[in-house]
Write a structure and sequence with these properties.
The protein is mostly helical. It is built from 24 helices and no strands. It starts with a helix and ends with a helix.
Length: 422
Amino acid sequence: MYRYSLVIFTILAILFSGCTPKQPAPKKTVIRAYKNENKYLLYAFMLSQNNDFKGAYKYFVKLYNHTKNIAYLKYAISLGAKLKKYDDFFKLVKEGLRDYPNNDTLKRELIRYYLFKKNYKKVTSLTLDLIKKSKTEENYKFAGSVFLSLKNYELSFKSFEKAYSFHYNEDILNNIADILYLFLNKKDEAVAYLETHTRLRGCSKKVCFKLIDIYAREKDINGLISTYKRLYEKYKDNNYAKKVVQLLLYQGEKKEAIKFLKKNDIDKEMLADIYISIKDFKNAYKVTKELYEKTKDVKYLGRMAIYEYEGNPKKDKKLLNSVAKKFAKVVKVSNDPLYLNYYGYLLIDHDMDVKKGLSLVKRALKQDPNSPYYLDSLAWGYYKLGLCKKAKKIMAKVAKMSKDAEVKKHMRAINKCLKDKK
């Protein structure tokens, strides 16, 4: 521990011995040598390490009084604020300003003191004087925050605007946007600032999410789409792409959503779903086939079978065999009730193998015994086998759950079956 402290002390001693203020001190203030400087600095450091900030504070004050090295004063001021020794804090700042009247750091600390004391008139006067005499980015940024706390939004905006002009800092820009949007009711101007920045300097997450926040509040869907597109172009994060698609779909722009997904070659599953929503089974099949060939996941083979069947109005033997072959591969390794029922119904409805179809439907019903779709398939299977009473009993239950046209069609056929058998 002693060796560790000694090493750190040596480093600090080197740093402090070379610490001079950024702004030249007046000629009357000369940093003086002090025989106990190293010893007191070590004491201050060790007390700080042990969280004895009160003791460390006293030594930094002594060090400043003896040496007039502003680095010690800044540490003392920092500790004084932490200890809430505000009156001592004020005396230290005033003393520092006598020695270094042009030091901006001390001027800002004095303003903070008056802000704490709620002397807002003094705060305003000193802050205006600060940015009048020293036009730096840091001072303008500080002034912007001070005037914002005083709810002087015009002065806050002007100060932040000046600070932004130095290096186009994004945090400062977001402050400008917030003031314009939230307090000055200049929504278009807030957006203009952010949009101009993104066009000239790129769509960073910090700035573009501020834009997204405003566009969302204003329900500007086109603005949201444009911003998420720029985020995707820059970061290639599929989450941003999905947001674009979701917003396009919200607007009913399905063709634009398809165009975007195809252009960027992303989320083929979503692309297939959109094709299905517009009943474009041909393209849905094509995209799903790509997914199956890439992943060998049988769920995609099952979807291919569905899209192939639904997309062909001519249900000839060749088509039915092709679809059945795909489903057979799927149900061999998958117990997904969707494919079990679809395959089963296919075999039943087209009289390909009614008994096998019923066994598949029953497997689906084990997982979801109250599904009106699966029960309808079961009743249709019994009807195909001539078991119309059994079919009618099941269909009566289905009719209470669904008013689907297919259900009504099946009910009529079953009732006719029963009537014909009388």
